[in-house]
Amino acid sequence: MQENLVIVESPAKAKTIEKILGRDYIVKSSFGHIRDLKKKGLSIDINNNFTPEYEIPSDKAKVVSELKKLSKESKIVWLASDEDREGEAIAWHLSTVLGLEQNKTKRIVFHEITPKAIKDAVANPRNIDCNLVGAQQARRVLDRLVGFELSPVLWKKVKPSLSAGRVQSVTVRLIVDREREIQNFVQSNYYKVTALLTNEHSEPFEAELNTKFNTKEEAVEFLKSMTNAISMHVAKVNASTGKRTPAPPFTTSTLQQEASRKLGFSVSQTMSYAQKLYESGNITYMRTDSVNLSSFAIEAAKNEIFNLYGEQYHKSRQYTTKSKGAQEAHEAIRPTHFENHDAGSTPQEKKLYNLIWKRAIASQMTDAKLAKTNIDIDITLSNGAKSPYIFVAQGEIIVFDGFLKLYKSTDNDEEDSNEESKLLPKLILGETISRRRIIATERFSNKPPRYSEASLVSKLEELGIGRPSTYAPTISTIIARDYIRKDNKEGTERKYQILTLQGSDIKETEKTEKTGAEKKKLFPTDMGIVVTDFLMNNFPRIMDYSFTANVENDFDKIAEGKIEWQKMISKFYGPFNGEIEKASNNTGYAHNERIIGTEPKTGKEVIARIGRFGPMVQIGPTEDKRFAKIPSDKLIETITLEEALNLFVLPRTVGVYEEKEMVVGIGRFGAYVRHDGVFTSLDKDDDPMTVTAEHLIELIENKREKERNKHINKFEEEGIEVLNGRWGPYFTYKGSNYKIPKEKDPKSLTASECMELVKVQSEGASKKKKSR
Predict the structure, then answer these.
(1) Cα 679 vs. chain centroid, distance in angstroms?
(2) How many Cα atoms are found within 13 Å in the side-chain-facing hemisphere of 697?
(3) How far apart are CA 356 and CA 345, in angstroms?
(4) Angstrom distance (rounded) from CA 84 to CA 252
């Protein structure tokens, strides 16, 4: 009889653990766990104990059979799924579906895949924690109830194939609410005053006035007063020391945010790369709310800092987790071996590992020490009175770089501020100050920023909505459902005034700047707005931010054994079921329709609305109506009459190429140019109303070049064509595609070699089908 069987979730994790445990252990992957709660799960008696009814997919039947056989042949079965709630539920499901005997089943957990951690886990097994399982079951049941019962209401009242969810719908609401804040924002302007001044030794420095002026007239009046100012003196000198402290090591959410800001990774990409780093034994478990480091990690980081930078750069720290109900692993994300400065099998994994390594090391380094100086400069006017305004000069230098030598922690969505030191010349109390020039620059208040993935994760965490492990799938889902889009927005030009006082002359100039440009930001779609408004009107409790956060707190209480999950679900379901019935039977259909104006030529009404194929503009009544698709960067709520009418200018002829017209239009898949019967997509940033003939010719020729490169070879007699595809070279035969092995040169491939590959790959596919 086999001594030990270890079951984990994935092949990569199994492979790493098998190397550590050696021959005495068979390590197998369950390829995820057998999902329970199919649609019939909605009819479960929520007042009784939960009993899963498993529906084993055909592609997992063989795996399950093998695991059952091996578990019967083994003296001990070790369930080694991840240590969070979902991992606990996986262990429980496996134990149930495999029919494991309790006296021969052991649950082991670890937050890193290293020899010490795995062997410690084996030496300290425990039973499956049913409270953690209950918390995960409650999450799944509640989310299924909300999703399965809300979605059909949307199909009936809004549009078929829509979906809703406890976390995803509230997340969309955040983005819709922010968009409306931006739409309702009223911009104001003001004048900021700065000065280039000198001390008694003619050493220059910059200062800023301690107030801002609301109008140009106020700014001009101040500058005029400065032309007759008798003197300026140093009224106050305040020298102080300061410090900057490193950020804690990463939690799941801070890793997602920092990887987005510094590496440009999406939240889902970050989690995918982190998963691979964890399974290969390079980092600790990547789903965690904790900023805690083990004593082993603190000592290992200390040794590395001593070796790299010296003792003066080390400061031992133990951070405390601030988030309530931290329910994931009990240590922050860190390298498993601090001496490894590089790890990962792809460039992306290497970049992410480097970020994790730097952040963890920096958390155990000394503060950066700063020297700060604040100088107040008063103004004496021509009448001898003191001006109500003062200039303030600020200087800061880094005396000791500390952790900044390695890593700059941001942990916010703002761009990294300028770290260059601002030096001030020596200034003493009472010293006379001279002015070279004073500048009043027109500035503008800023709209609320749209969310990036990083700032959205930060907001979700702040509100207590979801958990770190849910952020990536939530964002991916609402983008895939076309409720939001991640896009760039070009800035627009605006003019601003500059007033410069030099000597006794005030000079006015006007400059132009680009404003409002955004990169990789989240925008709501018209469908996202319609669904959000419908849910807000009919299910305000579900859409309330505090409700979603309170549900998470209930899950935490279940995990701690303070409440039973069935009672929590029962308390929720009664009122919710009433809301569903009311919305299904008593509410009208959701409409997002807006009358924009009338068409000048015909006087017909112009309407923006959602049609069968998405947002559109309609001109005229039903008998002779005309339609145009609304581009993705416009919304029904905000599209103007001019923008709407421009959509009907298309298609338009831009020019002639090769004696054929180039016609630009907007179709189902976006803007295009039609030339000689061939359609070519315009680039994402191209405006179909202003695109030039030269650019269209470039697009047409680029497409032709791609087509030429696509065709590698053709065997007419055999009906085989060798092509370049999106994922590499392949060939087609009788309507099917076949892979070309990497070791084969597609250009020199013969017809007989192709037929041999057809035979081999067809036989392989047939065997795979039979095994299923």
Answers:
(1) 34
(2) 9
(3) 15
(4) 13
